[in-house]
Amino acid sequence: MNFLEKTYPLPSPVETKVELKSRRQLIEEILADPSLRARLQDLMPTTTDEYRARNLQSILYSIATNIDSRVVKLFSRAMSMFFGRCFQAVEISFADRRKVDTAIENSAVVFVPCHRSHIDYLLVGWVLNQYEFPPIHICAGENLSFWPLSFVFRRSGAYFIRRRFKKDSCYALALHGYVTKLLSEGLMQKIFIEGTRSRTGKLQFPRTGLLNMIVQSWLEQNIKDVYFVPVSIQYEKVPEIKTYINEIQGALKKHERLRDLRHLFKMCTRRLGRVYVRFSEPLSLREQWASSEKSSRKDAHLFVRGLAHKIAQSINRSTPLLAGSLVATVLLHARSSPVSFSEIQAGARALLGFARAQGFESPGIEGQELKSSLRETLDWFVKEGLIQTQFSLGPHGLRLFCYAVPRRSRPTLNFFKNNGLHSFIEPAMAKLCDTTFPDPGKALQRLKQLLSNEFFWQQEASVISSTELPDWVAEIPKPLLESYFLTWRALREPGDVELEFKRAPHSIIALGRRWLSQNRLHYAESVCAFTIRNALQVFVDMGLIDSSAQESPSLITSHPRFQEMEKLFRELFM
Length: 574
Description:
Blueprint: E1 4-6, H1 23-31, H2 34-43, H3 49-63, H4 69-86, E2 89-94, H5 97-106, E3 108-113, H6 119-130, E4 136-141, H7 149-155, E5 158-161, H8 169-184, E6 188-190, H9 209-220, E7 226-235, H10 241-248, H11 258-267, E8 274-279, E9 283-284, H12 285-291, H13 300-318, H14 323-333, E10 339-340, H15 341-357, H16 369-383, E11 388-393, E12 399-404, H17 410-419, H18 425-436, H19 440-450, H20 478-492, H21 504-517, H22 529-541, H23 562-573
Parallel strand pairs: 1-2, 2-8, 3-6, 3-7, 4-5, 4-6
Antiparallel strand pairs: 7-8, 7-9, 10-12, 11-12
Helix pairs in contact: 1-3, 2-8, 3-8, 4-6, 8-9, 9-13, 14-15, 14-16, 14-17, 15-16, 18-19, 20-22, 21-22
């Protein structure tokens, strides 16, 4: 079987009148923009014109790509061999390819993928090259701008930006000018809506800095339209998963080095199964702005947040549900342990049923393929040491071959669970509320607000009644909620842990590990650095934490919502 499987046939190349200019020419034209020079003078009024121009030029050279069509072709061939070695298959699908072609011919196009792995940078560009799209400008983190990769990446279409530059107004102006130039030239771009790779396995809350620049450029310049194409990337096996689990458990992220990426490529020599790339229907910026209630530039930041939410929802809606997510979810939350294969199969069918009813795709696990896919996944989990096999007594004294999950493996299995959690979280939340709270509807709204930084909730009601779901489904959201409960208790009883605002997540992780050893927590996966950070931010947004108390954050017990949250956690865990 060819490793490249396309569900849409290769078309003839897209005709485009876009002229690829050199790096030097683009920068010279940006520097010649009188409006940009005027804004630069306002930022640096005490310096000379020559100094300002030289400073801006230096920043632009550190950012700008330097596309070379020969390097792009050679790099694409190398990636074909690399992906052929990595993956069993690359399956590609467009929601509406004709609309993408039309957008490229008439407007600026920005592809907006989720970010699962370093491979994403290579994969999306390679896929577009296989379909003979015009060259694409890929936004990459400055952490990848080191020799010799920067030489190859920059000539293959990458431009490099800093992760944070709020306090550097000159850098922000240079980046804004560069992005505006790419849009006005009609050049294709790719930006990652999450800003960084997801360490938890699910789509992270959007970072809207670059998206806001694009919207502002469209408002300020005479650009006809900008189309955003959401892109979902779903791996059966993510090569960096061990690094992610270390960071989940509190390890600091290390800066990428050539040795690290060489190690990543070495891991990729093992088969990583299939990878699914899904291009959603393009979103027109002009149409989104016209239909928005926000119609002034003053309200643009609110519009950008709404647009980011729509893009994220579209990514989730097109992300397939895979066997690894089904198996991990059943193993983590089945009522009994160890779990027999028949129980795993029944649980997987239940999850699959209401995910399909909500319109989610499940390639390779339909009908008779489900049983073999589940067995293959279980065999792989056993081989990786994530689960253990053992015999257990079943009905009538029969010995059953079963699977057990060691506590140390729960965070890794939770990563696989999170890959497909978006497709069944809403019915699971409804089931939890039905079985736990006296007023399920009110509780569901409160829990959705509490987890507003975790999921992109649909506005419409779920098409599945929670009464149709097995009872164990109510356990699915509990590890995530227990992370919020852990954070709440650490703030509620500061005597248990010494808290400093910047180091609060690490202190809470240390407390969580201690509570796990004392069996005061039920789920090892609830001790998660990224979820704890989200919980702290939600409590700040709710006004429950005094954000000005940088030295020792604590809950504001006099806040009207304090008792509401206290009651919510008591009914869930106490």
